[in-house]
Amino acid sequence: MIAREVLVLDTAGLSLEQLQPLSRESLNFVPARSVEEAARLFRSRHFSVALVVFDGEPESGLRAIESLVSGPASAEWIALIEPRALQSRDFRTFILRAFADYHTLPIDPQRLAVTIGHCIGKASLRQELESGKPESTGKFHIGGRSPVMQLLFQKMEKVIGSDAPVLIGGETGTGKELVAHAIHQHSARAGGPLVVVNCGAIPATLIQSELFGHEKSAFTGATQRKIGRIEAASGGVLFLDEIGDLPLDMQVSLLRVLQERTISRVGATQCIPVDFRVIAATHIDLNEAVAQGRFREDLYFRLNVLSLTVPALRERGDDIVLLAESLFTQFAARHGNGNARGLSRDALDALMRHDWPGNVRELINRIQRAVVMSENRLVSPADLGLDVARRSITTLTLDDARNSFERDLLETRLRANGNKVSQTARQLGVSRVTLYRMINKLNIALDH
């Protein structure tokens, strides 16, 4: 049952007497004399409707009020305004964007009662929808209800009970670091540090010092002792992101650390014992990298004791809509002055059709951009950058349509896999010979 308590933010305290006739409508008005007091009341009680009284300078305190109004998504906000305040274009824009409705002063009890009733009904509808919606995140606080994500969660349950190395695979942007954080938080090492190393982001000349640390005066510029990332991870977890980008000479050094569980800082002679769990992640096929001599086979086997693969977003079905709506809610709360109030059906259809080469990271960027830049009440495909012109179906034969679809699919998958034919063929469920035949038929160029 939606509470019929109504918060009234009235810094001058002049409107409560005018609201008394509405008590007959079973409405209980709770006064707040400041934005801070209103925020405290919101934290301790539930309000489906809130009133803000603007009876002074219209621009006074708008930033603080905007921050309050853009907070609790369950509340509907009504502005009570002196008519002269509406002469300000900026103030009119603020009211239009931030409030569900407005009412000019002095208060007309009968008309305001109708407005509050409509807002209570709208809040009730939202609460019913929210209460009937399944949880989007579970134990690991990672969004996803699709079968492939449920399988990933089942494997993670087994991984967190072990202290063995973990190798996480998956395309760029799928959330491999998020999985690593979840494993750390639910493992026996949760009380220790999680040290993240992006192996592809550290210059080759600095990577040894970054990983192993150095002693003072070990080389030019070493003015003091530095603790390396591996030593800093002792007692916790060392997460090696993009392990496939680690130079071969450092792969040898890392292998030695994993075998001996000791390190030596650059410029030092003594060995320091280290105790950490290693989690590595990569977007490349390490088997192929081993075959090409770009990754050491012994290190690969040392890291690949327990393996997880984070599925691509395009393989997750309705999770795309689930994540998009969750992200929209998060970003809309941060950017409370935006126009958009939700995602249109066309936008949701466009999200489901898109192939997501950038995966969840791409989805995050598109939703955030749409929330900030959209001029529409409901986000459109164009706001998401997915408003791609289509060829008229009346001019297409069935063969044309089939060839167009196959070409788009093959080009997208090949691009995502770095033009690796074997990997693409496995994903599409066809043989390499069949895939080559389709590539030739559709005149797709393979750039090597």
Secondary structure layout plus pairing:
Elements: E1 5-9, H1 16-19, E2 28-32, H2 35-44, E3 49-54, H3 62-69, E4 76-81, H4 89-98, E5 101-104, H5 109-131, H6 147-159, E6 166-169, H7 176-185, E7 194-198, H8 207-212, E8 213-214, E9 226-227, H9 229-232, E10 237-241, H10 248-260, E11 262-263, E12 272-273, E13 277-282, H11 286-291, H12 297-303, E14 306-309, H13 319-334, E15 342-343, H14 345-353, H15 359-373, E16 378-379, H16 398-416, H17 421-428, H18 432-441
Parallel strand pairs: 1-2, 1-3, 3-4, 4-5, 6-13, 6-14, 7-10, 10-13, 15-16
Antiparallel strand pairs: 8-9, 11-12
Helix pairs in contact: 13-15, 17-18
Protein architecture, described:
The chain folds into four domains: 5-131, Rossmann fold, CATH 3.40.50; 147-309, P-loop containing nucleotide triphosphate hydrolases (Rossmann fold); 317-379, Orthogonal Bundle (Helicase, Ruva Protein, domain 3); 393-441, Orthogonal Bundle (Arc Repressor Mutant, subunit A), CATH 1.10.10. Residues 389-394 have low confidence and may be disordered. The strands form five sheets. It has a five-stranded parallel beta sheet with strand order 2-1-3-4-5. It has a five-stranded parallel beta sheet with strand order 7-10-13-6-14. The radius of gyration is 29 Å and the shape is globular. Helix content is 43%, strand content 14%. The chain has helices spanning 16-19, 35-44, 62-69, 89-98, 109-131, 147-159, 176-185, 207-212, 229-232, 248-260, 286-291, 297-303, 319-334, 345-353, 359-373, 398-416, 421-428, 432-441; strands at 5-9, 28-32, 49-54, 76-81, 101-104, 166-169, 194-198, 213-214, 226-227, 237-241, 262-263, 272-273, 277-282, 306-309, 342-343, 378-379. With 448 residues, the protein is an alpha/beta fold. Helix 13 crosses helix 15. The longest helix has 23 residues, at 109-131.
